[in-house]
Amino acid sequence: MEGVGAVLHAATLHKPHVGSHAWRDFVDTNVTGTLTLLEEAVAAGVERFVFTSTTSAFGRALAPPPGAPAAWITEDVAPVPRNVYGATKTAAEDLCELVHRDHGLPVIVLRTSRFFPEADDRDEVRAAYQDANLKVNELLYRRADLEDVAGAHLRALERAPELGFRRYIVSATTPFLRDDLAELRADAPIVVTRRVPGWEEVYAARGWRMLDSLDRVYVNDRARRDLGWEPRWTFAYALERLRAGEEPRSDLARAVGAKGYHAESTGVYTRR
Fold it and tell me: pTM here?
């Protein structure tokens, strides 16, 4: 890393690798790999470090019990890892914080929500929703466009020296409020109509469906405030694009496309 001023660390074994890789592989890549980069960054005098993490780090905290309101997910929610992916990403985040405290390396952790283009890995969900329909639905509460995710990383690189160490949720800005959480769990379409009127006609023209219930809402307020980041690709903007006959995702997202996670056939996550 001699001569390097900034590190943007996005390398990882991901959730789709849980079924194909051993836990040790996750530790070697996600934990030891991150520590190696942090140590070398400190030794080389790197000025800023951005670590791409995941909202999957929240794990079981994302799933409220039956009958409970949807979960309001901010950076203050304590992670409860669901699998080795979430456990190792959380451990890597903690190493980032420790290295900052001990060595002063400015590190920003970005917990990114869904931005992958692959289809959902649940058979029943793919059967119930067209892929574009589901992804636009998810912009309400658990998805971001790749263009906005890239923009958040650039803002994090700019602000890291003044911020020191911070964790941020990176997801499309939700139209929902805390007061909506109980109703979102019971009858999401009613709340969507209240917050983003006019979606029904756009959906009806395409034969699309709104989700009946939402179990969580990702809140990006802190990232917007501290990073000066304003995601463009919201649910409301996607509707505008659809009304105009345009794609509800960015040129960058379409250009990058699906890369896949496996060379062998493993269903929706196979490399193409």
Answer: 0.94
pLDDT at 272 (0 to 100): 45
**Paired tokens of 271:** 């490399």
- Give the count of domains, the chain: 1
Residue 213 within a domain: yes
Q: What angle do CA 235, 82, 90 make, to 5 degrees?
A: 85
| Cα–Cα distance for residue pair 253/146, rounded to 1 Å | 5
Q: Residues 6 or more apart from 73 whose CB is under 8 A from it?
A: 55, 58, 61, 62, 169, 216, 217, 218, 219
Ranges assigned E (strand) in the chain: 6-9, 48-54, 71-73, 107-112, 165-170, 216-218
Q: For residue 226, what is the domain's CATH number?
A: 3.40.50.720
CA distance 101 to 91: 15
- Please say if the pLDDT value at position 264 is more than 80: no
